[in-house]
Design brief:
mainly alpha; 17 helices; globular; binds aspartic acid
């Protein structure tokens, strides 16, 4: 038998290898486990939601107390998430670009990712519109008098393109302008790659910063049970169970569309383009999906999503580029929500959308989803752009705003599942490309 020769460069390397080997041997003689069973974060969040509904119902007569003393803690939680998203997106995309280390490869992966994201989002809005039309007859005619919502101002397409490029180094971060942060990360990342060897300390610094901010996110997310409770309880106390009852049909419609989109679109793409069993995909994604459902934040779910996709075999370099990008620009669930809510709001005002208006909704919803970050409650901001694009009253958002959290949990789950499906597909394609290139070289 041929003996394997092992060479160690340093003593530390020899110790590391010895420890690794020990770790591999240990499971054969396991020590009795003394681990205490801790409730998973997703379970804690679920309990917090149930408690919020119960306490909210009990506080209906003192709703102002819930608004004054409970809601602020929810706002603190949201503020913390908003505080962390700019550095998370900047450093995770930077780290992703650097790890790919080849600009041509980034172009290839980036191009495939962008096309996939745009196509699935357009599909999602269309599915949302179709289901909303199927349910249209069942939508309740809610009173639209007295509702008000301040929407975002609509900007022209050219202005939107110009605004993607930052004119200042700091404002993208201070304004949490996601598209500008992505452009910034790409430019700096490319520069680091091009500088090469000399930029090694920068590479290390970026990776360390990425780890630090991911840790911050993890710490903030530990507060999610409290955050969820404090956000949901005042909503229930203010609106009572009636709001959920009267809007139940819109919720049911949105959730059916969410499920159909995931089952039909993602199963097909994962199977056909990624050569992966959809069942295996959804099973592997369960922890991330549960977390997204309870936290309502795609950016917050990033670390778990990375873990799940890597466990399913996605390459780390693809995941660390495609997932942070998806958490900011790919929102299929939000697009479905926009399709459903646009038809619902139109129905409440007694308006029927023309086919041209529907095409406009699909285009605007697809583009609007690009610029908004994956944080709780981002959907209504985008919805105001969509409503404005087809001349519907923005005030209509107030009709669904009270139960936005419930819509948000479902749409975030779809959002992150879409990001993960893209990661699996791009990773598979990249592997195939590399195999082909290797075969060509050796031939
Ligand atoms: N909460 C969603 C997300 O994080 C965005 C939205 O509000 O639709 O993906």
């Amino acid at each position: 038998m041929e003996e394997k020769k092992v060479e160690y460069k340093t003593p530390a390397e020899a110790i590391d290898t010895a420890q690794e080997t020990l770790k591999k041997i240990e499971p054969e003689n396991p020590e009795p486990k003394k681990e205490k069973k801790k409730l998973s974060l997703a379970a804690q969040i679920f309990i917090a939601m149930v408690l919020a509904i119960i306490v909210g119902l009990c506080m209906q007569n003192v709703a102002s107390v819930a608004d004054s003393y409970i809601k602020p803690f929810g706002t603190i939680f949201l503020n913390l998430i908003k505080f962390i998203i700019a550095p998370i997106v900047l450093f995770s995309i930077l780290a992703g670009v650097i790890s790919l280390s080849d600009i041509k490869k980034i172009g290839m992966i980036g191009g495939t990712t962008l096309i996939y994201y745009l196509c699935t989002t357009a599909c999602a809005t269309t599915i949302g519109l179709i289901f909303a039309y199927l349910f249209r007859g069942a939508f309740p005619m809610l009173s639209t008098s007295g509702v008000s919502y301040e929407g975002a101002e609509a900007t022209s397409v050219m202005d939107t393109i110009v605004n993607i490029f930052p004119s200042n180094f700091l404002t993208p971060i201070t304004d949490a302008n996601m598209l500008q942060i992505i452009v910034m990360a790409l430019i700096i990342g490319f520069a680091i790659i091009l500088v090469g060897e000399k930029a090694a300390p920068a590479v290390k610094a970026v990776n360390v910063c990425n780890d630090i901010f991911m840790k911050c996110m993890e710490m903030i997310l530990k507060l999610s049970p409290i955050g969820v409770f404090c956000l949901l309880c005042p909503v229930i106390a203010d609106n009572g169970p009636s709001i959920i009852g009267s809007l139940a049909i819109v919720l049911v419609c949105a959730y059916i569309a969410y499920i159909v989109h995931m089952v039909v679109v993602y199963s097909t793409t994962v199977k056909v383009l990624g050569h992966m069993s959809p069942l295996k995909f959804f099973k592997g994604m369960m922890p991330a999906m549960l977390f997204a459902f309870s936290s309502a934040s795609s950016v917050g779910t990033l670390p778990i999503n990375m873990e799940c996709t890597e466990k399913m075999g996605a390459s780390k370099e693809v995941a660390s580029f495609v997932l942070p990008l998806g958490a900011t620009i790919n929102m299929d669930g939000t697009a479905i929500y926009q399709g459903v809510c646009t038809v619902f709001i139109a129905a409440c005002y007694g308006i029927t959308l023309t086919p041209q208006q529907m095409v406009t909704v699909v285009l605007t919803a697809t583009l609007a989803s690009i610029g908004t970050a994956g944080v709780p409650g981002a959907g209504p901001i985008m919805l105001s752009m969509v409503l404005a694009s087809v001349g519907l009253p923005i005030d209509g958002i107030a009709l669904v705003y009270g139960i936005d959290r419930i819509f948000d949990m479902g749409r975030t789950t779809v959002n992150i599942t879409g990001d993960a499906s893209c990661t699996m597909i791009v990773s598979y394609m990249q592997k195939k490309r590399e195999e082909k290139a290797a075969a060509k070289k050796s031939a």
